Every structure is written in C-alpha cells, then in structure tokens.
C-alpha cells in the first residue's frame, strides 16, 4: 500500500511525485511512456515556471541542457508590436524553451532521486474503485497497486478522470489547430509571436541551435490546412516579413507535427481517493504557452494538499477542496483570456487601443508580460483602474 500513486510522469506527474516523496511519503509513479521521449507539444516555459524549477533545485540542470534564455519577447499585431523582457520572478530571469525529451527526463529523474518508485513503460488499464472510493490501479501487465490516493497526471485523455467521471466545466471546444517543426538558422534572441488575423506564427529558440516554428489556424480552416500541411505551413510563414528567408537559409531537422485536439476546460479536481493535476484537470489551447507552468504550479498546490491530508493535519477532502479553489481562482481568468485569443477574432477596439498603448511604452510592455506570465494576476492588470492608468499615461 503506497501513500500515493501518480499516473503520468511528465510536467505534472513527476513534480507531484517528487514533492510528495521529498516529504517522506511512499509514492509510485507510473507512465506508459519510457524516457527520454518526446510528446506533442511546443515547450516554452515562462519565468514563473523557471522559478518553480529553482524552488525544486532543478533550474540549473534544465538550463544546462543548452536551450538559450529568451531575452526578448515580441508579440506582433501588425500595425504595432509589444516588445520587451518579461520581468524576473523569484530569482528566475528568463523564459526558456527546453525540449521535452530533456525536460521530462530531468523531472522523472528528480522524482526517482526523491525516493519515488518509478515504473515507466507501464500503462494503467483500470482504476480500482471500492464503495465509491478509489483504492488503486491495475496496470496493463495485470499487476495491482493500492494507495491512499491515486493522482491522475495523465494528460488530456486522462484514464483516471474517465474512470471517476470527473466533470468538465468552463468548457469550450477546440478553437484552433496547430502545426510545428524544428529549424536551424532561424533563432533570434527570444520568443516571437506574430498575430496575422487568421494565422498565428510563433518562433521559440530551443536546444541544439534550433527553433520551433509553430503555425496556428482557426479550427474552421483545419480541414483545408490538413489537406496540404506543407503548403499551408509555408504560406503562413511567408506572411511574416523576413521569416521565410530565415527558414529557407536554415534546415528543418524534424518532420512537421500537428494537432487540433486542443479543447478548453477545467475538470473537477478531486473526489474520494483521487485527484487530478496538469492537463488532466485543466486543458486549454496552447496560445498562451502556459501548460507547463500551470502544471508545475498545480503540482505544488496538490502536493501540499495531499501532504496535509496524508499526515492528518487536515481532513483530505478539505485540503483537496481548497486545492481546487486555488487552482480555479488562479486559472479561470487565464482560461477566459486563452479562449478569447484562440478565437482568432480581431480584438475589440478598446483592447486593440490598450495593446497599442502598451506597445508604445517599454516599461509598460514589461508589466504586460508580467501579467501574461502570471507574476502579476491578470485580473489585477486588466482592472478598470489599471487600464485607466495605462490609457491616460
Ligand atoms: C501543440 C501544443 C503546443 C504546446 N505548447 C506549449 C508551450 O509552448 N508551453 C507550455 O507551457 N505548454 C504548451 N503546451 C501544453 C503542454 O504540452 C501541456 O500543458 C503539458 O504537457 C501538460 O503536462 P501533463 O504532465 O499534465 O500531461 P502530459 O504531458 O500529456 O503527460 C501525461 C503523461 O501521462 C501518461 N499517461 C497517459 N495515460 C496513461 C495511462 N493510462 N497509464 C500510464 N500513463 C499514462 C502519458 O504517457 C504522458 O507521459 C502545448 C500543447 C500543445 C498540444
């Protein structure tokens, strides 16, 4: 009998397992994947994600993978661009875009080093439920493991969420589709995001001197886009001044990959004997590049709640209820913003005017990036008083 079984060992599961194991709990961490391995995702980490890695003692190992710091951030809206350096947060200074092959392996290793029992290549086939309480899992090889809590960190199509019937709320179906590939010869000194109306083009420098180049389109365009991925991907890149030349002068190092499976929702985060963390409990369009940061933050909140429940410091249900409240209060405003951006509609005139005003002031641009990355709550930044201050400056 373990204290906790964590299903899924990437950006949500490994930190949750690590933090619980570091507090002395017996933890089994399972993943059907083996590591190192890639997953379908670009992988920008905002500064607060790097700060979480710092708190966990993993920042330097992640930086040592060789991905460059993003020293500028550019959000280009055509007539104007918001350009600046996101503000430092708790000693972390730059966003980084680290390949998941490298990042996830460091996270799994940290869970193992903390004392979690790690079984990779081990899929969970069944969640065991007795009298309405989750008591353990059966893996595909038929083995049974039991625990006081089973944590689903198993991503969008979570087996745990399905088994317990966790309901989604604040949900909006997928609004975009996206395709990406890696190129040498394209990187500049930071992240570039080009809003072209019916396309968004993103460039994130990453490991091995490459940059990931991502193109998103509205979901309505997905069938046409998919009919000629190569042509549509190149056509979007050609609309960004200078980018087609950079891409042509470099070399693509991997095939183009893509997905339209990007729904937006929160799911009930806990019940008797179970909890959800990461994409399993909160999934959204990748346009804010926040999934990894949000998984890290949720892992910390959940590990603290589970620790309180396991030690008897608080009733488990109370601790988990607070976890869900904290998660939702933090992420709901970002989910709303994500849905707005992912709709790829032209911004309402007031918002366009606000963005133009922000773009005209470098200090304000930095504050804006601070709100986007969550180091200042977005609700506070977009409050009528603050918007009034920006517009009258
Ligand atoms: C196109 C795209 C681009 C993105 N770009 C960014 C970005 O730039 N920055 C950012 O922060 N986020 C980005 N995201 C989001 C980010 O990828 C996710 O938020 C993040 O991976 C969530 O981590 P997770 O650990 O919750 O889930 P996952 O990374 O999905 O990991 C879940 C794990 O669970 C395992 N698993 C599933 N079922 C089982 C089972 N039954 N038994 C055992 N194991 C199981 C899987 O093998 C997997 O390893 C992007 C997403 C997409 C789709």
UniProtKB/TrEMBL annotation:
Superkingdom in the source lineage: Bacteria
GO molecular function: FAD binding
Matches recorded under Gene3D superfamilies: FAD/NAD(P)-binding domain (3.50.50.60)
Domain spans labelled FAD-binding: 2-327
InterPro entries: FAD-bd, FAD/NAD-bd_sf, Geranylgeranyl_reductase
Entry-linked PANTHER family: CONDITIONED MEDIUM FACTOR RECEPTOR 1 (PTHR42685:SF22), GERANYLGERANYL DIPHOSPHATE REDUCTASE (PTHR42685)
Protein name: Flavin-dependent dehydrogenase
Species of origin: Catenuloplanes indicus
Taxonomic classification: Bacteria, Bacillati, Actinomycetota, Actinomycetes, Micromonosporales
């Amino acid at each position: 009998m373990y204290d906790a079984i964590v299903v899924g060992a990437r950006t949500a599961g490994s930190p949750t397992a690590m933090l619980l194991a570091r507090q002395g709990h017996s933890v089994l961490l399972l993943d059907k994947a083996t590591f190192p391995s890639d997953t379908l995702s670009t992988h920008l980490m905002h500064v607060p994600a790097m700060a979480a890695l710092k708190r966990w003692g993993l920042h330097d190992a992640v930086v040592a993978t060789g991905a460059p710091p993003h020293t500028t951030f550019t959000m280009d809206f055509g007539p104007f661009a918001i350009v600046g350096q996101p503000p430092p947060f708790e000693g972390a200074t730059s966003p980084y875009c680290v390949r998941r092959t490298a990042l996830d392996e460091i996270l799994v290793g940290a869970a193992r080093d903390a004392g979690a029992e790690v079984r990779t290549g081990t899929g969970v086939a069944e969640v065991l439920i007795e009298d309405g309480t989750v008591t353990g899992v059966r893996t595909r090889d038929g083995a049974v493991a039991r625990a006081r809590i089973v944590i689903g960190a198993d991503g969008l199509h979570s087996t745990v969420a399905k088994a317990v019937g966790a309901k989604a709320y604040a949900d909006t179906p997928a609004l975009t589709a996206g395709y990406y590939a890696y190129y040498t010869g394209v990187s500049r000194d930071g992240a570039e995001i080009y809003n072209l109306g019916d396309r968004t083009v993103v460039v994130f420098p990453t490991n091995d001197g490459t940059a990931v180049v991502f193109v998103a389109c509205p979901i309505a365009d997905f069938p046409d886009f998919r009919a000629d991925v190569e042509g549509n991907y190149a056509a979007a890149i050609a609309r960004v001044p200078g980018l087609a030349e950079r891409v042509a002068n470099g070399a693509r190092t991997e095939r183009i990959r893509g997905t339209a499976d990007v729904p937006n929702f929160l799911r009930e985060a806990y019940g008797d004997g179970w909890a959800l963390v990461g994409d399993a409990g909160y999934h959204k369009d990748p346009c804010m590049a926040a999934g990894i940061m949000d998984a890290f933050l949720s892992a910390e909140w959940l590990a603290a709640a589970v620790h309180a429940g396991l030690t008897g410091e608080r009733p488990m249900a109370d601790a988990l209820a607070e976890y869900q409240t904290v998660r939702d209060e933090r992420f709901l405003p970002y989910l709303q913003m994500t849905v707005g951006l992912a709709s790829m509609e032209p911004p309402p005139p007031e918002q366009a005017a606000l963005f133009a005003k922000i773009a005209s002031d470098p200090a304000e641009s930095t504050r804006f990036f601070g709100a986007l990355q969550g180091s200042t709550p977005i609700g506070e930044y977009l409050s009528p008083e603050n918007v009034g201050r920006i517009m009258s400056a």
